[in-house]
Every structure is written in C-alpha cells, then in structure tokens.
Amino acid sequence: MSGCGAFLHDDIDPFLALATGEGWISGRWEFEFLLGTFPQGCLVWREAGETVGYLTSVKYGKSGWIGNLLVQPQARRHGIGRALMERAVAVLLKNGVETIWLTASEEGAGIYCRLGFAPIDHIYRWTGQGAPQPGDRSEPVDLEHLRAVDRVGWGDRRETLLQLTCCRGRLHASSGGFICCQDWGDALQVGPWNCVIASQALQLWDRMLVPGDRKIFLDVPAGNFAAREILSSRGFSVKGSAQLMYLGHHPLYQPGNIFALASMGSMG
Ligand SMILES: CC(C)(COP(=O)(O)OP(=O)(O)OC[C@H]1O[C@@H](n2cnc3c(N)ncnc32)[C@H](O)[C@@H]1OP(=O)(O)O)[C@@H](O)C(=O)NCCC(=O)NCCS
After folding, report:
1. How many domains does the chain have?
2. Domain named N-acetyltransferase: which ranges (predicted)?
3. What domain range includes position 152?
4. For residue 167, what pLDDT is reported?
5. Distance 71 CA to ligand 1 centre (A)
6. Going by fewer Cβ within 10 Å, which terminus of the chain is more open, N or C?
C-alpha cells in the first residue's frame, strides 16, 4: 500500500533525523504546534508501511504556509514531492486560504513553478555572532500590537505564530516594531523582527543583542534594504538563500517592514 496520509506524532523524530541530515534547522516544538494547529495540512507519504515523504502546512487567516517538504533520497524523482504538494494546496484552498506561501530550495522550485507558484522575493539566511544583553528579560507579549505590526508586512493575521515564537523567545517591543530572539541550543535565532517605523529596527537590535560569541542566524527578505545595512554593520553575512513564492491572490507583502521571519522557513 502506498499513498498520502496524516503526519502523526510518531513521524516527528524520523523527520527530524532526516532534516538534520539535510542541514535544516528544525525543532520538535514546531511540529507540536503544526500538528496541534492544522493537522489536516500535515502530510506524509507511506510506501509498504515506511514513511518516505513529509510536508507541513498551516493557516493564518486567509493565507497558508507550506514547509518541511522532504522526501527520502532513495524515493526521490517518483512524483512523491509533487503529490504531497498537490494534496496540501487542495487542503488549504478547501479551508478558505486565498494565498499560499513557501520558501523554495533549488530542488523544490521546479515542482512549485509547475503548480503555479510565482516568485515574489528572495529570503537570505544571515549568520553572525553576538549575545543577549546581560540580564536581559523578555517583555510581556502585547499580542494585539505584535499582530498589527506583523500584518503590515505580511498582509494577514498571524497571531498564532507570533504567540508561539514570542512566548518561546525573548521579546522587545517599541511603538513601531518588535524583535524576538529564540534559543536554538547554543545558537540564537533572531525573528520574528518586524517594524513599521524602520528607524526603530536598529534600536531594537541593540536592546536585544551585544557583541559576543554565540552563533546567530536569521532569515531576512532580500527586499528589506534597511535590514541588510544593519546586519552588515554588525558583521553578519549571507550564508544561503531561497526563493519566496506564493500561489493565489497577490499578497499585500511589504518586505521593508519584515526584518526577519518568525521561523527558519518552515512556518513563515
Ligand atoms: C525537493 C524534493 C522534496 C522533491 O521530491 P521528489 O519526490 O523527488 O519530487 P518529484 O518526484 O515530484 O519531482 C522532482 C523531479 O523529479 C521529476 N520526476 C517526477 N517523477 C519522475 C519520474 N517518474 N521519472 C523521472 N523524473 C521524475 C519531476 O519532474 C521533478 O523534476 P525537476 O526536479 O526537474 O523539477 C526532494 O528532492 C527533497 O526532499 N529534497 C531535499 C529537501 C528539499 O530541498 N526540499 C524542498 C524544500 S523547498
């Protein structure tokens, strides 16, 4: 028996093992969130009882985000990636989604183009070094403010994602923006980091981080030139890139307000 099925909790560990082999940054907590929030959009492909392909999706208002498309190396080029994508797109559309987002690796881009996804920007993976401000404590999460600022960049209500990531990390907010820093073992991820008043972005960065020797990474829209200036001035450099693509309604996307994604590509 082979075919598409539900992504179960038992699939998380095998997925994480495969993802680590690909050099992906992903954690169990993301899957607990995805399976708890939008289980109908989290899919696997099974062949003779073995799971050979994975994909997750999640819905924020009228937009959806597809991530974690991964097929076992020996099962590639047999149409499994495309079949998982077709099913995920159908599930999201059935659930009222009008715009579907994803970040595309070179290997995935062919499938996405053939399904009608269009490029809208690039996402750069920036890395560098730093440390949290000594004695830094997270500020209380004002979800209404975060949602309003985030919405200017992404055009939709993403409070579930913001609550998850900002409660998990340390948060600093200002009148026109916010920055969050999440622990990933010894390393730190900056994001979500959004500003409607771009001049506050650097102040937020400096409130959050000081020079140090912890590895820091963040995913940043290429269309945000202010972010590029800040990160270059702090000694960060670009270590990789992916295409940001969408399907469906043209989104109200404002990359100048998005300084870093909330996730490392998997959830937006
Ligand atoms: C990207 C990935 C998920 C694709 O999975 P897959 O199951 O190989 O996907 P498909 O088989 O549907 O399509 C892949 C290619 O095989 C081709 N193909 C499909 N069936 C085929 C067949 N029977 N014979 C020959 N080629 C075939 C497709 O046309 C496609 O060609 P393209 O690469 O030129 O676009 C897989 O390569 C992978 O896991 N890569 C590493 C992780 C990754 O990059 N994920 C995407 C993140 S954005």
Report:
1. 2
2. 1-144
3. 123-260
4. 94
5. 8
6. N
